[in-house]
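Is magnesium ion placement plausible here? Inputs below.
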Amino acid sequence: MQALILAGGKGTRLRPLTVYTPKPIVPICNRPFLLYQVETLRRAGITDITLSLSYQPQKIEQQLGDGSDYGVKIRYTVEPQPMGTAGAYKYAEDLIREPTVVLNGDILTDLDLEAVISEHNQHRATATIVLTPVENPSAYGLVETEPDGRVRRFLEKPKAEEISVNTINAGTYVLDPRVLDMIPIGENYSFEYNLFPDLLRRNEPFFAHVPHREAYWLDIGTPARYLQANHDLLADRIHASRLTERRGRFEAQPGAEVDEASVIGSDCIIKSGAQVINSVLGQGCHVEEKARIENSVLWPHTRVSAGAFVADAIIGRGCHVGRSAQVLAGTVLGDKSSLTDYTQTGAGQ
Ligand code: GDD
Ligand code: MG
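Reply from A.M.:
I modeled the complex. Tokens:
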């Protein structure tokens, strides 16, 4: 069994974070996101992984290389222009003509993939799709099933009046290579809008997998959910992805406070009277006297000046937060942003 990770989207909903960093490698607790997926695959014994790229592919290749640092073999396909989710799978055909696990490249999960694969084999399915429950399916692909587990209906981004169940497409599939023959060559083609409805029309064995134990599942593709992913990892809520090391080598001056939950990258400096609570600091961040950072994520080389207060915010790489600034919930600063002293952003503004 091989794997294909769909990692070519533009990450528009995560802007400005994705202007210089493609979504598949935004850091979650200081590790590029895709490494969590690579880990999930490796745990299931899948080490032959193809990454399907389109947006800023060199940055992703630079980060992950041939995969040998992570105990897997990574190959890449780069589409000349985005081919759509199924088009991307077709485009990788030469590398993956065998049963393949296909993952959306923005899903953080501790799903038991081996269970999915064995169910797929038992059913002799053409395709198996993993389901997860969500409160509001409108941003996802709604999936209705039959009592025997077959998919009855697939409806991408349903309107409010079309929502009949709370189970959605978790962005994880096992596909038999015959699926490749149903996708046109060189066209933009979508699993969600084209191929899944096709499978149903053709009455192919298309099954849903419902995880037995409650699996953690989150699409990290919006700022709120990106922040949530970091918090869930800080709080050890992701069964299979425990943080092994929360601290690099950093300097906390006397009177600085860093709580146990926080993840602090190497070369950070936290000055006297500053507080870092339930937050992630990337490498080389500076937190100056009496600044307070809580429930926030700072990317590397960002400076928070004296007396500033940062709460429930995401701050990109190489930013400067001026003295006594208030950076509050909902704030997302792109790389190299600079906030003048006393600036106020976020909640209440
Ligand atoms: N290579 C490549 N080429 N990858 C693509 C392309 C493309 O043209 N278009 C999208 N992708 C990748 C994205 O990078 C992302 O990892 C994944 O495919 C899904 O795209 P999103 O843009 O994140 O889709 P979504 O979140 O709105 O909806 C999808 O995911 C939901 C679960 O999070 C759908 O699959 C829904 O049905 C599903 O419920
Ligand atoms: Mg998504």
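Short version: The helical segments are 34-43, 57-64, 85-91, 113-123, 191-201, 223-234.
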